[in-house]
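Hey, quick one: can you model this chain's 3D structure?
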Amino acid sequence: MRILAVDDEPLILSSLRRYFALLGHHMTGARSAEEALGLVEDAQSFDLVLSDVEMPGMDGFTLRTTLLARHPELPVLLVSGDSRAMEAAMVAGVPFLAKPWSLEELEAALRRLHTGFRAILGT
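Sure thing. Here's the predicted structure for all 123 residues.
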């Protein structure tokens, strides 16, 4: 899978890059939602976007809404350790993974989201 990971913390992006390499995925990192929007040229750019919720500037919820308005077929998974973000995601029905997560939980969430979107699109 080609994954765009969005987080304002370089250490987290570095860790995600190692995790995704172990899982056999290619990851591109973005340090802000605005940078991420510039990297997603079309729906074929990435198979999935993983974004932190709490970031300076545009937050993960707004990034997800903006991406889906442009590319409704692009799966976006939000992550956060904040209980308010988790509650907001649950209320909105947004795909969400609570921090801290294990490598197995991350892989399972990615597979569910990617497979679910493909099933909806009939691909």
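One thing worth noting: The mean pLDDT is 90.
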